[in-house]
User: What shape does this take?
Amino acid sequence: MTKKRTTVKAEETRARILDSALQLFREKGFDEATMRDIAEEAGVATGAAYYYFRSKEDLVMAFYVRTADEARELFPKVIGESRDLQKRIRAILDLKFGQFARHRRLLVALVRIGIDPAHPLSPFGKETEPMRDESIDSFRLAITDSTTRIPKDLQDDLPRLLWLYQMGLILFWMFDESPRQQRTKKLIDGSLDLIVRLISLSALPLMGPLRKRMLDVLSAVE
Amino acid sequence: MTKKRTTVKAEETRARILDSALQLFREKGFDEATMRDIAEEAGVATGAAYYYFRSKEDLVMAFYVRTADEARELFPKVIGESRDLQKRIRAILDLKFGQFARHRRLLVALVRIGIDPAHPLSPFGKETEPMRDESIDSFRLAITDSTTRIPKDLQDDLPRLLWLYQMGLILFWMFDESPRQQRTKKLIDGSLDLIVRLISLSALPLMGPLRKRMLDVLSAVE
DNA sequence: CTTGTAAATTGAACACGTTCAAAAACAAGG
DNA sequence: CCTTGTTTTTGAACGTGTTCAATTTACAAG
Assistant: This one.
């Protein structure tokens, strides 16, 4: 029962619409670029865009899926360059921010969509689970067999925490209007160093109870 | 040069529109309640709503201003009940969450507005500065002359950090669909305890360099 | 080549947030 | 009571995202 015959031509149309959308989003911003603009730029009728994408927001999501596919390819190379924990996390962050750099403004639209828990495209929702898990797993790969010793009981939850940390950084970056977003750069430099230090610190014998307390909070919450 | 004569009747109309809006927002949600609904409920024409409020989102902001006014009155009573740091912060949080409880869904709309750095109503923007400062100052009042000893160099920045912490909690609460939002409750219980412990811990002699490093990051960022 | 069916495409229509010129209500002075 | 200027109110109109019945196109089967 083949439900989709999807010709090559159809795939081309889809790509043309998405490309037109991204171009216009970047030129004029998400709100300013209208679906009629996008369709015209792609050389199709307005309704055609809705044949390929559920909504205007879905176009942004399609962009995100694209970057995720790209990241999947680049990831092994990026992670393989060092076994130092800090350098590895840094490499992941650089990859992500590098991908988003040209579309910083578009990220506002992405977050505005995701911030609604009821929205299917929310980063905490069901539909985005695979991508989220993949992203979290990339941090898991980064910490395993790294040179920094990580307490056993922390190993399970740390990837998720780092993912959350990354989300926070992206949020900050969105708001950062300093030239070339150098404030975000400084924040990453400073905070990442701090975090790695805290992880090392938390491995000290006396820190067991405090660590346990933190992990208890985490497990009670999810 | 009195530019606004604003009669009593006009003020009543404004209040009626805002009340209708909040009622409908709560009944049907922000997106589902249309401006035409709101106007009809208030017994005015559609355009009237735009005479008193710049936009639909502005109605949400007006609600927020209302709660802030209310909080200003309740604050002294709430803070005066104890000198214990944890209890005080807890009291502030309880006040905030108590106010928002009935309108949890509406908060999504509020955050969706605020997440856009370019939007005038963004919580980090110019227009919301007074309210933000007031909120930060409430934390400043809570830590001064509390029983917990707070390192001198930390005293300036801690209020802002706590404000950020509060924002994070509100975000979590927004996504929390557990019965009566008990997961948020647990998170507050656990994290607040942790934070107060960390503050105490950071006051230990050996922690000076780490504290300084953190403060350096903060100052480099803003 | 013809035909039947699914995929692809169209463009008018809908509901929405928002704007605005015009009308109405109101206040103050004569 | 008029007149004049300001505040308030109206409702039609605009541009938007989105839907959908209708049409055209693509292609496999006969």
